[in-house]
Each structure stands twice: as C-alpha cells, then as structure tokens.
Amino acid sequence: MLRVAIVGCGKIADAHASQIQRIKGCELVGVCDREELMAQQLAERFRIRRHFSDLTELMQETSPHVVHITTPPQSHFNVAQRCLEEGCHVYIEKPFTLYRKEAEELIALAGRKNLRLTAGHDDQFRYAARRLRQMVRDGQLGGAPVHMESYYCYELGGSGAYAKALLGDKNHWVRTLPGQLLHNVISHGIARIAEFLTTDAPHVFAHGFVSPMLRGMGEKEIVDELRVIITDENGATAYFTASSQMRPSLHQFRIYGPRDGLLLDQDNETLIRLRGKRLKSYAEHFLSPLDLASQYLRNASRNVRSFLANDFHMKSGMKYLIEAFYRSIAGAAPVPIPYREIVLTARIMDEIFEQIRGTIGQAEEPSPEAERTKSGVR
User: Fold this and answer.
1) For residue 370, is it left (φ>0), alpha (ψ between -120 and 50) or beta?
2) Are strands 261-265 and 270-274 parallel, antiparallel or unpaired?
3) What is the Cα 272 distance to its own chain's centre?
4) How many whole angstroms separate alpha carbon 65 and alpha carbon 336?
5) If you average pLDDT over residues 183-201, what whole number do you get?
6) Which of 28, 255, 315, 364 has the fewest CB atoms in 10 Å of its CB?
C-alpha cells in the first residue's frame, strides 16, 4: 500500500485528495498546512485520519512514501527539498519551481536519492490530449512538428473569488511571484509546446502588457496579456498566447507537421485532424466542412460514451497523471513527464519573465535564496 500525504490545503488540494482516493493501492495518510484550520477542514471533509501544521511532524508520524505539494509556488522548492531528503517521492503542483535552476537542483537531488518527481501538468493527460500525443507518435503529422500554437486564457472580469482577491489585495501572494499572475497560470500552455521542441535552449521573444480593462480599474502591475514567439534551432516555431480578455476564452493547442495538423480543444475535449492536402476545385468547399462536422460528431459521441461509462470527469487528467506517477514509483513505467520537459518549461518561463520584467514593475529579480527565505517552511 502506497502511503500518500498532501502539504498545502488550499483549493487545489481538494482535487488532489479526491483523485488520490479514487486510485487503488494507495492511502491518504495525512495532510499538512501552516494554518491548522486549513488542514483540519480538508481532513474532515475527505475523512483523512491525521492532519498537521508542521511538516516535520507529518513526516515523523505518518511516514509517507509520496508527498503532493500544493502550497503557493514560493515554497515549492523548500518543501520538495525537505521531502526528498526524507526519502519521499514528490508530486509538485504547477509551476514546478520559481526558476529553472531550482528545478534542476530538485531533479539532481531526486536522482541521488533514487526517488521520483513529477510536475502538475495534468492538462497534458486529459482524454483528448493523450490521443493527440499518440497520434503524433503514430506519424499523423508526417514528420517532425513544423509549427505549434498554444492558447491559455484566464478570465479576470467575472465574479470569481480568486480574481476578486487578487485584484483587491496588493499583498496577495500571486503578486510576489517573479511573473505574478502569469507565473501561476501559463505553465500548462508552455508545457504543451515544450513537449514537442527538439532543442533544450530555444530562442524566446516575449511581449507582455496590462490590459485596458485592468488599467481602467486602476491596476497597473498585473500583466494579464502575453504574446510569445519561440524558435527551435532545428527550424520548428511556436506561438504562445495568454490572455484574460480575448473571447472566446481559449485553451487550445495546434500542432502542424509537413503533411497534416492536429487541433486540441481542451474546453470541448475534442481532437480534430487538420488535413494538409486540399481537395480539387469546389470539393474543398463542400467535402471539407462535412469532414470536420463528422469529426466533431465522433468526438461528441466518444465523450458521451465515456460519460455514460462513468469515465468522464473534469479532473481526469490529474487522476491519469497521478496513476502514471505511482506506476513509475513502483518501477513499472518511466516518469510520466520527462525531466527534460519540466526543465525546458521552467527555462522558457524564466526567459519570458526576464523579458517582461519592466512591464510588471520589478526593479530586479529576487534571487532564489531570497525567495526561499521569504517563503519559509517549518
């Protein structure tokens, strides 16, 4: 039986607890948060026997094999380092760490300890995303990717509690991240691109700005619009768009090869083949729309069948990722997200925030050491 613990008992911890308890062969033995009431409420709602406000006590009294870290990103490095040193495998929510160097340090430590790590890029393991990956492996593109486009939107104009808290609190923890709001949301979209890049040091060109909507509300610090161009030394290119304003609010990934392309729409849980060869004459206008309509109908049918089979839910990607991670711990499979992709995602994010630093009003980037001291973990 795999013994699992959660450190950090905020909103995302609910999803982790729910999915862990759906997986056979593991037991959620304890939860921990510096605010004891947060740990207590999570334990009571999910019927977890032990809760703690001290990480050392959690380790000593529950002896977990795996720890899920769902604390704010500023503490990810410190907490993960402590858990690895205690001999635990670690699942870290996105963003994996604040900086690439921290990611590399954790991966190196895990290697020395013969332990496993993964990042919370669960969007890459939803139903349609897994099908896209398999189709690329099967040669659907007709060769290596030529171009990619990743869209990751985040709505700030609604009535959500998170948006209200962020915009209304000048001391909100998100504002202290090197990339502020973007740092907390874009890793899903960047990771999709990183998976298919063939170089470890792509060129990154980033432009970020505060949207007119936020400026109209008096907000001058939070960059909520980002446009990025990424180029691979082997000729592949990618565009990344993060926006709080564009409508529809997209969570899409497009990948184009020398023969065909694929369109993944996370919001609709659909995967569409984009045929590269055009039909002759008017057939392109008549048959191509029918082909697309047929594909969407097949996607809808697949989703309905999965739903009726009780195998279709919003956090399916997280459950699949956790299960795959646990299999890697048992030695039955490699880690679900290669470490190269985790580091490359962090590298690209470092480049983005370095280039838009002036836009988010930071005179200088805090050192990793300063961030670790500020986050503080008991």
Assistant:
1) alpha
2) antiparallel
3) 22
4) 18
5) 95
6) 364
The pLDDT score that the predictor gives to residue 157 is: 64
Residue environment code for 252-286, b if the CB has 16+ CB neighbours within 10 A, otherwise e: bbbbbbeebbbbbbbeebbbbebeeeeeeeeeeee
Enter the tokens of residue 145: 């990717």
pTM of the model: 0.91
DSSP state of 237: E
Mean pLDDT check: name the lowest of 74-83, 129-138, 284-293, 334-343.
284-293
**CA–CA distance from 157 to each of 187, 250, 263 (Å)?**
21, 15, 27
User: Which amino acid type is present at position 111?
Assistant: G
Phi, psi of 4 (to 5 degrees): -125, 140
Q: What does the mean pLDDT of the chain come to?
A: 92
Contact 102/218 with Cβ under 8 angstroms? Answer: no
One-letter identity of residue 87: G
CA dist 286 and 284 (Å) reads 6
Q: Residue 15 in 3-state DSSP? A: helix
